[in-house]
Amino acid sequence: MKQLLDRDTWSEIFQSIRKNRLRTLLTMVGVFIGIYIYIGLSGASKGLDNGFEREFKDVARNSMFIWAQNTSKPYSGFKTGRRIQLKLSDADVLRKQVPEIMAIAPRNVRGIFGSSPGLIKRGTKSGNYSVFGDFPEFTKIATKKIYDGGRFINEDDIEQTRKVCVIGERTQKELYNKDEDPLGTYVNIDNVNFQVVGVHKFLGGGPLDNDSDIFIPFTTYQKLYNTGDFVAWFTVAAYDSVDVVQVEQDVKTVLRRIHDVHPEDEKAIGSFNLGEIFKRIFGFANGLTFLSLIVGIATILAGVIGIGNILLISVKERTKELGVRRAMGATPSEVRNQIVLEALVLTLLAGIVGIIAGAGTLALIGVFAEQAGGEFPYTNPTVPIPYVLGSMLLMVVLGILIGLVPAQRAVSIRPIDALREE
Amino acid sequence: MIEIKDLHKSYKMGSNSLHVLKGINFKAEKGELVAIMGSSGSGKSTLLNIIGMLDLADTGEYVLDEVPIKNLSETKAAQYRNKFLGFVFQSFNLINYKNAIENVALPLYYQRVGRKERQEKALNYLDKVGLKEWATHLPSELSGGQKQRVAIARAMAAEPKVLLADEPTGALDSKTSYEVMDLIQNINDEGNTILVVTHEEDIAHMCKRIVHLKDGVIVEDKKVEQVRASEYVQ
């Protein structure tokens, strides 16, 4: 320990390292590449992770869509192939029977799933857009970003069956002049005038979203299109801590019971589990992080073994020098410590240079990714500090361990044999 | 200073055992300059290695400056070498990436002498061997004689009780050999005990006492009239 704090020890080591430049350089390359790859890979996978995180931050991660189809099994007197129709009242039952549900939004739509879109007119301009009937609860599941001053559908809209709508940013572009404020103006949806209360910014949160979507209160939709109690599909969000797959199963079981569907009829109730997809995407990112960890550690290991290897050769080369040192009074432990410290210094030096180079490369990639715009799910590629410290610690441990091999070799040669060698 | 009693040493060569030293009895007082002579295979280098604690005797007694040398661990041997002995080798054995002054300072480093004092002492000894101006030169920039003088300075820097020289002139021409012997004689004049292994008659006669080894035993041990090397050095 005393030797470790001695300035002379270090000057001795640095002299030996400095005076053998080529050897030092070659030795360091392995570890340098190892740590460089490690930092680069884990930074890149972190960037990807951040990118996904950014892309999907506006969507409840454990949400799902539930809709009804035709039955595939006869049950309780009904024959197979019966069309099931979800009802508004199903939502209340689901809320009661599946406590894991955080929010459930019944929705109706015209313009997708084969139905004709609504015809929207404003003055001389007109266009066909998808029209959604929505509850305010929907915003709990998929955040809708509304531009300044506007709002989404609220409870009063529902209760009073108001003729209000939220239009998409593309709809605004197509129906309004550039400087016009759409708030408070009226548009004509399938021959009924609606007051615009908000413009929503497009956020790609789900498979059905579009930048021209028009939202109107669910109750207004019922009257406008005469849909009665019918619901096209439910958007359901579960609490963060629960298993979304289980919630999906529970919801379907309840719906089967309500609609007299065979309990094992998989076809009657359709679903798309966004939560599970998210799980897979984030699982992929986590897997990538894990992979980079494994690859990085393996490369560092290979690099450190390379250092050990070259030091082993260098010990052979320096047999005579070490013999002279021992004739001059260097104890075996002094010789051993010197070799181990040389290995350690080389490893750390290479590691630090590798970390700096890796961080530089990551910064460069980050700049390019930014220039490519938001298209690319890649944000802020950084390596968590614990990972960096962990890799440093790993290098210290491995450097010492690998240094012990040539050090032991150096000590095992008797000074007399070392000196005799020509 | 050195006392050796009935020293035996044999090397195992496969199934054969080679008996190199067959009962050596030897004494050297402080301030002596002893030449150990003998043809190759006579055991002279083995004897020197045992005295230098680089090798271990099988049986027999070895006392150095009233310290019995036996059952040495490598660490203990290293400490004794550092404290008691200075080595000069035939092939100089300077560390090639260290300059002259750093080479001379090396034993002091292992003696835990402070950096500044080390530099001072090393420079002082380099001055003694006349190489002060060459302090910052690497061994590759020095001639053979200069290298050996650096090696002698290095051996003396630790202020050892005994200086052991194994064929110090073996790799040098006769003119340089005499210069080196002149240096060794001067060091001896200051009261240092020196053992020189050589097979050259003229070098041996520059010592004060000649010990002849043959087949592992001392066959002759005589005091001689010392020839001063300075007579040959211009």
Structure write-up:
- The complex is a heterodimer of chains A (422) and B (234).
- With 422 residues, chain A is an alpha+beta fold.
- Chain A has 14 helices and 14 strands.
- Chain A has a 6-stranded mixed sheet.
- In chain A, a hairpin with a 2-residue loop joins strand 4 and strand 5.
- The longest helix of chain A is centred in the last third of the chain and has 44 residues.
- Chain A is elongated and about 105 Å long.
- The two termini of chain A are 35 Å apart.
- The mean pLDDT of chain A is 84.
- Chain B is built from 7 helices and 10 strands.
- Chain B has a single domain, classed as P-loop containing nucleotide triphosphate hydrolases (Rossmann fold, 3-Layer(aba) Sandwich), CATH 3.40.50.300.
- By secondary structure, chain B is α/β, with parallel strands linked by helices.
- The relative contact order of chain B is 0.19.
- In chain B, helix 3 crosses helix 4 and helix 3 packs parallel to helix 5.
- Chain B has a 6-stranded mixed sheet with strand order 6-7-8-3-9-10, with helices on both faces. Chain B has a 4-stranded antiparallel sheet with strand order 2-1-4-5, with helices on one face.
- Classes of the chains: A alpha+beta (422), B alpha/beta (234).
- At the A-B interface, helix 2, helix 11, helix 12 and helix 14 of A face helix 2 and helix 3 of B.
